[in-house]
Design a protein that fits this description.
The complex is a heterotrimer of chains A (325), B (338) and C (280). With 338 residues, chain B is of the alpha/beta class. Helices cover 30% and strands 22% of the residues of chain B. Chain B has helices at 53-61, 87-93, 105-108, 115-126, 131-144, 161-172, 191-208, 219-225, 243-248, 253-261, 300-304; strands spanning 8-20, 26-38, 42-46, 68-77, 80-81, 98-101, 179-183, 211-216, 228-233, 236-242, 310-311, 317-318. The chains are: A alpha/beta (325), B alpha/beta (338), C mainly alpha (280).
Chain lengths: 325, 338, 280
């Protein structure tokens, strides 16, 4: 029985809306409920895919888990320890940063253009007190090798001299050099050319095998998620609507949104006749969240109860759905 | 090389287009590309960033920037030589015969004007008619593209992403063109909307009897919507043919790699191809096959000579010295990198 | 840490002909100021028997009311101008970067407070403030440098603040925070180095302004009496301008040339540093 690495309990993140127009038409403060009462468990050594369309809150959730943002409510536990209140405590937060790292989406923006590859990977080490020149050199070179870069080649280069794939590998090296236990990857391959993506995905798998690191893989591309992840969680408008193993979600999705999402993915096979589940409308404005189940305005199976009550995420061990049907 | 059919709408022969860079170097963005589009064809132009596909789209529309120049080849539209068009002829060609669905609504729609006005203004630029007639035409187009007529007086920021893209589609249909060039029309859109929009585009194309050139980096989208495919690499054509032929029998190592790199959500889970290396620098003079530096099957010949087109089944052509060679089938990218 | 695209920057700069001319002129002035003692020019303090002598082959710019060689005195004036110009602009830049960077990056009450202070200084007439300070506290040259620096930092702070506000959202800043870097480290090792270009461009122009301010102060008699400066020279020739125009003319000319050169260079620099040039 795998241990649970990260417990996410009823996490909420609201963003107050500053527009005066919104305040005029609603009583009191208007909020964007980016992450609304999310509970999830991430198991040790697994790669959990967090999928959903833009605006569903997956990136916000990622940032909350990395303590780059403070939740409005709720508790996050890492290996049993409550980390939610660490944001104010500098020393504990610094220790935490050794254990949890984040890899960002944009390979062009994630690296300081004035730092060489060496300096970029050096920074986390030196921030955490490693001073010995030989140890630093050793760890940096070792890490570059693990991510598939030759240190002779790239060590003294600047980001603008590297390709997108190489930059992303440097980002990964920077994140892994402290040997964290939990890594959150926010759309790490979305901005890369297709021919380069597989290399990065393989790298994640390789890292899991070599370091035993747990990974939350956030992506809007379900096909990619399917290829890499053990389990998948689907988010819609700030809520998790379904969780399950990869095969369960892809082959036997239960939530109408999941079904629509999977059926909408184009298939690179000219003979495959794909029928997509028709969905009406588009994702509603974040300020006008539908009552009851958030998906009901677009759902074919919506009934009266869906309009009035929010379904809870429930089910058996690891396999849960938030739907009344 | 490409069969000259009776109903050929567009014929591009050995097109060469270069950009002059600030440093003085010349970037050979399009380096000898040949293809044709017949009436009713849907051709997918596929390749990764820097392969030249967007440059070709811009050349066909005459929307090249100052530092671009056409260095050779020809573009024939219904027999007429497009490259020698006078400005007057260009005005009658662009948007009337060939129009474009742009990649990002942000680039194509002016945020300070209502969308209906933008469409009717473009229409009245091309056709002399009254405001009422133009507005009626815009209304018809809205209905055709599935947009609520009530949105005609909206500003772009009041529309959702999918609606904005439909406005762009409507704009491309304003003057009843015969060929629509869709340049990555669904980039940035969510997968569900992308599915809807692509279906709508294909249905409009079929309904109105138009032809389409779909420029994309997404093999899945192209495979589903197009009947013919042109794979580009380094400014040159790597492979061309009917989609079924190319898919069943990819004969260029790059095509093989590309097809293997796209995860198929319905197929069995297998290793994805990771192509080693990076796309070539087109500002430098290159000899031989553009793909050679990254090709697992390269030999000395590949670095010396440009590969000629090897004719395979039907109109399937691959530009590889070893195309059709049974040995080439053993290219397997998945085992290449650890 | 290195300037990304340094080669491109230099190429852009060279393209601005006026900027390069300005740069060379300033370099010449700089060399003069540094090598003053070794130059084969007469002693600027040496009195002679020929006061009010017009320009001649012996005295290129003539002599002043005490017979001192004007050419030599004008060259000595370079030192004071450059000293005040560069040091006060530098001081202004350092203070501006620190305060503006902290305000933009941390926000909150720090930002509010420093913005209010900045606003106050931006509406004040600087020159009159300096006259006040100098007449109250003294006219030693280093005092002038400090005053000018302390009074002109707000504009630099505003530039740096705007840059910090924009840059703190960059992914590499988030990544540095994620690595565990303290916010001060992130500010001074990531945000400031990447945002400092417009501050540099403005500071160069500030050098020219400081030179003018110094000249103005010494023209009014508020400058350091022990230091030869162009403003002082212009003042000394004021009374006799009708008869001995050269005493005021040449220092005035030097002033115009120096400040113009600095401004041309500063303009060219800000065009070359334009972020559009530095992208990918």
């Amino acid at each position: 029985m795998d241990n649970v690495m990260v417990h996410i309990d009823n996490i909420v993140r609201h963003f107050p809306v500053k527009s005066s127009l919104a305040a005029l038409f609603s009583r009191g403060q208007a909020y964007v409920r980016a992450v609304d009462n999310v509970s999830l468990e991430i198991r040790e050594r697994e790669i959990l895919g967090l999928a959903g369309e833009s605006g569903c809150g997956k990136s916000t959730l990622g940032r909350l888990l990395a303590l780059l943002d403070k939740p409005t409510q709720g508790v996050i536990r890492l290996e049993g320890t409550n980390i939610t209140d660490m944001l104010g405590q500098r020393r504990r937060l610094k220790e935490f940063r050794k254990k949890v790292q984040m890899i960002l989406q944009d390979p062009y923006e994630s690296l300081d253009p004035r730092y060489t590859v060496h300096d970029t990977i050096l920074e986390p080490l030196s921030v955490h007190g490693i001073r010995s020149v030989s140890e630093l050199q050793d760890r940096i070179e070792k890490m570059l090798k693990i991510v598939g870069l030759s240190s002779d080649d790239v060590l003294n280069k600047y980001p603008h001299e590297l390709s997108g794939g190489q930059r992303q590998r440097v980002s990964i090296a920077r994140a892994m050099v402290l040997e964290p236990k939990f890594v959150i990857a926010d759309e790490p391959v979305s901005m890369l050319d297709v021919s380069v993506r597989a290399g990065i995905l393989k790298l994640f798998d390789h890292l899991r095998q070599q370091f035993g690191v747990t990974c939350l893989f956030i992506s809007h591309d379900i096909a990619v998620v399917r290829h890499l992840c053990d389990r998948i969680a689907i988010m819609y408008m700030g809520k998790i609507v379904e969780v399950g193993t990869r095969d369960e979600i892809i082959n036997t999705p239960m939530h109408p949104y999941t079904m629509a999402l999977i059926s909408a993915v184009p298939v690179p096979d000219p003979r495959y006749k794909r029928t997509s589940v028709p969905l009406s409308g588009e994702v509603p404005d974040a300020l006008r969240v539908p009552s009851g189940c958030r998906f009901h305005p677009r759902c074919r199976h919506a009934e009266i109860i869906c309009r009035s009550e929010e379904p809870e995420l429930k089910g058996k061990e690891g396999r849960r759905v938030a739907c009344f049907m | 090389m490409t069969p000259y059919e009776n109903h050929t709408l567009l014929e591009v022969q050995d097109l060469r287009m270069h950009y002059r860079l600030a440093s003085g170097a010349v970037l050979k963005a399009v380096d000898g590309v040949t293809f044709s589009i017949r009436r009713g064809d849907k051709l997918g132009l596929i390749g990764e960033s820097g392969c030249g596909k967007t440059s070709i789209a811009m050349t066909l529309m005459g929307l090249l920037p100052e530092n671009a120049s056409i260095r050779g080849g020809s573009i024939l539209y219904e027999g007429g030589d497009v490259l020698s068009y006078s400005p007057k002829q260009w005005r009658e060609f662009r948007w009337e015969k060939v129009s474009m669905v742009f990649q990002s609504a942000m680039n194509a729609l002016d945020p300070v004007y209502r969308v209906g006005k933008q469409l009717s203004d473009v229409y009245r630029l091309h056709r002399k008619c009254s405001k009422e007639d133009a507005n009626k035409h815009v209304e018809d187009l809205f209905k055709l593209t599935g947009l609520p007529v009530s949105r005609i007086r909206c500003y772009p920021h009041q529309l959702s992403g999918g609606m904005k893209q439909r406005v762009i589609i409507a704009m491309s249909l304003l003057c009843n063109p015969s060929l629509i060039i869709a340049d990555e029309p669904t980039t940035g859109l969510d997968v569900i909307i992308q599915d809807q929009i692509m279906r709508e585009i294909v249905s409009l194309i079929d309904q109105l009897g138009l032809s389409m050139l779909l420029v994309s980096h997404d093999v899945s989208v192209v495979t589903e919507t197009c009947k013919k495919i042109l794979v580009m690499y380094g400014g040159k054509v790597a492979e061309y043919g009917d989609i079924a032929d190319v898919f069943d029998n990819p004969s260029h190592p790059y095509t093989m790699g590309l097809l293997e790199a796209f995860p198929n959500i319905q197929g069995p889970i297998k290793g994805l191809a990771a192509l080693p290396g990076t796309p070539p620098n087109l500002a430098v003079d290159l000899i031989g096959c553009r793909f050679a530096p990254r090709c697992p099957r390269k030999e000395a010949l590949c670095e010396e000579e440009d590969p000629p087109g090897a004719k395979l089944h039907g109109n399937h052509v691959a530009f590889c010295h070893f195309a059709g060679d049974p040995g080439i089938k053993s290219v397997n990218y998945c085992e290449l990198n650890g | 840490m290195n300037l990304r695209g340094k080669g491109r920057l230099i190429r852009e700069l060279v393209r601005q002909k006026m900027a390069m001319i300005g740069f060379f002129v300033v370099c010449i002035f700089f060399l003069i100021a540094v090598l003053l003692q070794s130059l084969p020019i007469p002693d600027p303090f040496a009195l002679s028997l020929y006061p009010f002598h017009p320009p001649s082959s012996e005295h290129f710019m003539g002599t002043d009311n005490l017979g001192r060689d004007l050419f030599s005195r004008v060259l000595w004036g370079t030192r004071a101008s450059l000293l005040v110009g560069i040091l006060s602009a530098g001081l202004s830049a350092v203070i501006g970067i620190i305060i503006g960077g902290i305000a933009g990056y941390y926000g909150g009450w720090i930002d509010d407070l420093s913005s209010r202070i900045t606003d106050v200084f931006l509406v004040m007439p600087i020159f009159f403030l300096l006259i006040l300070i100098v007449s109250l506290f003294g006219s030693h040259i280093f005092f002038a440098i400090f005053s000018i620096g302390l009074v002109t930092w707000p504009r630099n702070a505003r530039i740096m603040r705007a840059q910090a506000l924009a840059l703190k959202k960059r992914a590499y800043v988030t990544a540095a925070i994620g690595s565990g870097a303290s916010s001060l480290r992130v500010l001074f090792f990531h945000v400031v180095p990447n945002g400092v270009s417009p501050v540099i461009a403005y500071t160069v122009i500030l050098i020219g302004q400081a030179v003018l301010v110094e000249a103005g102060l010494s023209f009014l008699g508020l400058g350091d009496p022990n230091v030869i400066s162009w403003g002082q020279l212009i003042r000394s020739g004021q009374q006799s301008f009708a008869n001995a125009w050269w005493i005021s003319f040449f220092p005035g000319l030097m002033l115009v040339v120096m400040v113009s050169a600095v401004n041309f260079f500063g303009d060219g620099l800000s065009v070359a540093l334009n972020p559009r040039m530095m992208r990918r």
